[in-house]
Design a protein that fits this description.
The chain is mainly beta. It is built from one helix and ten strands, in the order H-E-E-E-E-E-E-E-E-E-E.
């Protein structure tokens, strides 16, 4: 059994997943807010990333609720540039949803970027951007860490 666990692959940043993340959202309007996000990665090379706002508060020390679902979702595509020195892939937000794609929740066009760090239980992200398509363009910065959630899926390759 010990030999099997040593050979089991770690979750690579290129594998697919759907996870809950505890996020701190900072905007120019007011105090930072803590909220649950649903983050998904998919595609042949893990080139798509969606970040779904649940609008559910994520108080410290509380587990992710089972009923989490995205209400507003932004889509980002991986940059095809050499990896950053830390190996973290970078994604750019989409201002339009491709006709062949559907997302959970209402599509929220944005501009900015997402950096994805870590693997498996240590997965975290940092993003900066602003909403587009609205009269008021609100800018935000988000830092989030993966938390255990009954609805998660992490694809294991190998």
């Amino acid at each position: 059994m010990n030999a099997m666990s040593k050979s089991a692959p770690l979750v690579s940043p290129r594998t697919g997943f759907v996870v809950a993340m505890r996020a701190t959202i900072v905007t120019a309007k007011g105090e930072p807010a803590s909220e649950w996000l649903i983050v998904s990665r998919w595609g042949a090379a893990g080139e798509h990333l969606s970040i779904g706002r649940t609008k559910v508060a994520a108080p410290p020390g509380k587990p992710a609720p089972i009923q989490l679902a995205p209400k507003q979702t932004s889509l980002a595509s991986m940059l095809r540039l050499p990896s950053a020195p830390d190996g973290a892939p970078t994604f750019l937000f989409a201002q339009r949803l491709p006709a062949s794609m559907s997302l959970a929740g209402d599509f929220s066009p944005a501009e900015g970027y997402v950096r994805l760090h870590g693997r498996g239980t240590g997965l975290r992200l940092m993003l900066e951007g602003r909403c587009v398509g609205r009269a008021i363009l609100s800018a935000w910065r988000v830092e989030a860490t993966r938390e255990p959630w009954i609805g998660e899926f992490i694809e294991h390759c190998g």
